[in-house]
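Molecular record:
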Amino acid sequence: MAGPRQECEVEIRVRYAETDAMGYLHHAQYFVYFEIGRTELLRSNGIAYRDMEEMGIFYVVARLSCKYKLPARYDDRLMLITRTERMTPVMVEHSYRILRDGATLTEGASTLVSVGRNGRPLALPEDVYNRLVGVAAPPGGH
């Protein structure tokens, strides 16, 4: 069995509604794209964020950064690369790169903390954490 995916690529086309008055992708939209990337990375490992919420587990953003290098414009076809850099049962760090035709437009990073419905830190269930870090279930286990 292959280990968990640590990186995910998502193609995004810039929509007109996401641009500012100068025709550039609005700076806040990059953070929305980052969320798309980390949600798809989680999904690529067989876990839907919706299922985590139903278990009473929520990821909250503790830190978020973005370095803008080159602008994106309406109708640009972008490649978002999201990577898990570090993970513990209560925290995950991601890095992000947005490229257009191989050129890096933006780099970002985030730290998410797993919390319960009360907003207090809560470790991921062991089976979920193990799936994300690549620990195999014991023989006969689920």
User: Anything to note?
Assistant: Residues 127 and 139 are 14 Å apart (CA to CA). The first strand starts at residue 7 and ends at 13. The two ends are 15 Å apart (CA to CA).
